[in-house]
# Entry
Amino acid sequence: MFDPYRKWLGITAKDLPPNHYRLLGLENFESDLDVIEGAADRQMSFIRQYQSGEHSVAAAKILNELAIARICLLKPATKAAYDDKLRNELEPPEEEISFDLLPSSPSRKKRASAKRKSKNSQQLMIGGGVGLVVCLLLAVFMLSGSRKKPEKVADIDPSPSQKPAVVDSKPVEQNAETPSASDFAWREEPQKPQPVGESIDLIKTVVFPKHAVHGEWERTSTALIGPPNGQMYFPVKMPEDYQLKYAVRRVEGADTLFMGFVMSGRQGIVVLDGWNATASGLCVDGREPSDNCTTLRRKLFTDELAEIALTVHPGHCHLAVDGKTIFDWHGNPERLSSLFSIANRETPFLNISNAKYVIESARLIPLKHVAVPKRIARLDREIDVMPLIDTDRDVRRGIWGLNKETLSSPDNHGQIYLPTVVPEEYTLSATVEVPAGNPNTYSLAVGLVAGNEYVQFHDNQQSAGLDMINGQRFSDGEARLEGQWIKPGVPARLRCTVTKDAIVVEINEKTVVDWSGDFRLLEMSGDWALADARRLFLGSLTHFKFRDIKLGPPIKRAKLPDAPSMAVGKAVDLLALIDPVRDALTGTWERDGKNIRTLADVMRSKLVVPLEPPTDYKLTLKVAREPGGGSNDQALFINLPTAGEKAIVAFDASGKTVSGSSLDGPNLHVPPLTWRGIAIDEGVAQELTCIVRGTGIKVLKGEQTILEWTGSPHRFFIESQYKTPGNKIGLVSWNSRFRIEKLELELLPPVTFPEPASLDAEGNLLSIIDLDRDVRMGSWTMGSDGLISDKTHTVRVHIPALVPDRYTVTFDIERKEGTDGFKIGLPMRGQVCEVPFDNYNGRLSGLALVDGKFINDGSNFTRRQHPSAIFPIGKRVNVRCQVTPDSVVVTVDDQELVRWHGDPRRLSIRPFMVPPKLLAADQSKIWICTWDASFQIREFHMLPMTDDEVKELDAQFDGVFPMSAQPDFVVAVTNAATVVKLKMEPTVAKSKPASKLLPIPAKAKLDAARAK
# Structure
């Protein structure tokens, strides 16, 4: 019969049942609580590996006993009682010594025996009573929902394949009681990595000098010896699921070992003992392991051999050193970043900094694919999250306080996971309070999971919104709303609802976020990102109190008035639909008969009309200014939705001197969308008409046109202080009192942009550009001599052409004025490669971002420095870009500028180069952009590459590094029978000044390079 105590813990039958100390592998009555806690962690971590095997029942039983032992021995009071009980059990009763000099009589013997029995009975009763009390205390403690759980999960070494429990989504009977918190608690289910096939000895795959790309490496028959600043890669094709196992010893120095790996085609970097053995972790969210969500601050390596195991699955990696977890990271592979890279090699590699390591063994083990657990669609009822929270386990930053009713955050940066499963659709709600007397500013953060992405709701007292969208931070994001929504000392009800395509956040039943779109545009900023992107969290930068935290099904919005039928020529009375109490966001709005009035009781009074308008419509309003407004601006702003976007029209802004709209940024004062004069007179109702279409906007004061513009609605811009949420008409009164006597909406016949013209046989891109439709930012003009940009900060146009997988783009370009850059975006297998020319005032060119490294970073190996501009003023220059799914070659006047080959997911675009409204279609389009300079473009063409061109380009990259990344080297071989030493150093005769462009390598040169 299988004996788990003997097999797993070495406890023989004579010690059964084991006492708490024997169960933990400790000497009886151990007094050091740290030693007890460490022993409990080790034992529980060891037993967990058997939870999913054939002895899972025995493992669960022993884990429960270990948890009870841990709780008992870590509390001084219960430990003292248990120790007394254990001493009584282990120490036999003392023999009674008679001090009589005479022999004992029979009666005396009976009395002595009775006395001994009485004493033993008392000891047993006391011990049993104490034991009973301890058991009762433990039972009450475990059933009371206390925050102290049997396991300190944060300190337990999880298995590499942890995953959330799959909660049964079958509906619960309606007459069932409220579900227990444990039914929905976040559970980790450790599993051993399941090997698939045979492992690969990586050391045997290394060929010298090809794979040792830097430093003087040595090789013995079984090991590699890595020098300071050495770099080597292992030429193996990576599976999706695998484990890298290294046996490593550091023999000199005290600095870093870098481990390169690949996750879903994205290169990642593990740093071990970085910064002179003070920090380890992943490079993630653009931040180094010295300060990010995976940081571990302690020394890992000693002079002993260290066993390193890195387990990688799509969206999950786990690192352990000598069996101890260093990090367990879940997230989008796009969050991974790199300190450096090995050119175009998507392979594992090692890099050493200021130390010397011996790599005794290195193996790649393909693993069984771990399927992502299917999330339940939604909860069927609301659950209470508070009983699930364990601050010892769930806190990630700061010191949090918890009692039965209140969770308190620290005064500085604090974050805590919510230990619940996350359905696909849900509502997270909580009562939040900024205690009275706190500083005037506060900052609240809530981490939400939307689809497979992570996003943060943020409220910093002045405004609230989502962070990040389209790479834009909260301060610039499109889902940001100005206003103070939480008053110090006053509890507020926060409610965040996530559905399959939308996020709605309400505070005190007022909507502050109403965002819908592609969840893939969402991401978490590095300041708040956590290692596990599958979990909800609460966070703050100031002291908050959280109560009544609930997770449940998505909340249905309050029922709005039934939308009236709309027809061309039929006006809809919007004033009749408005409920001032329900629809006002800020300020005081009230009904005055049929009219709606706003008071100037706050600087910004905001109201949302409860109706989503069509794409093309006419809005007519009759409005009068009433006395009593503020002394500064007294303006009226109208948010006008169209074609999925929203324009804004301002009346009497800037001290009642300017009316109009904004494009590409806060530029209300910039023509052509500016009209000067007073639009709304005091005391006299003025009729204003806004004609809104998907192709532009027109505004009239009576019969006078004060604004008319045609173009892409994606260029409209609204500053957050004038913005209202959702796809509804919004009214904003700024420091003013207005009376609205008429507000009518009329459906207009749809008008669309012309369809994109088909490319001709020559692939002429200029012929299909429609500036009204295709310009995303700035101003362009098109004439017989080509396309010309103006000299503003950012001018951008998207080319409406379908792009094949392999294509060549050629254009003739001339700088007209200015000293800064020109950029082109080239689609590559769903990614966009950004190629800047003459960046930084004509000094840098190359690929904008490779492995997260910008062109001004020396580790971006595509960077080209040049002493003067590639595009000088007044000179026509020919540019050719050859693009395949995994390569880019750019030449300028027959000189090579860029030669890159690799996974396109390593390439990206800087966030501020993303247009304000990123369309899904934009990601598959060529775009061009100028920056603080004016350019003229002639002869702009795109053609598919021929089969011969594809073969020639593929042959150039066959088995070689990009020429821009391959260092020149010399090889020295000594004692070839045992050790090979390689010295990688620049060869002066072959080096080329970085300030010159490299000529296009001839095929003969490429053949010679491959032969070497």
Observations:
- Residues 93-179, 959-1012 have pLDDT under 50 and may be disordered.
- The first strand starts at residue 200 and ends at 201.
- The longest helix spans residues 106-143.
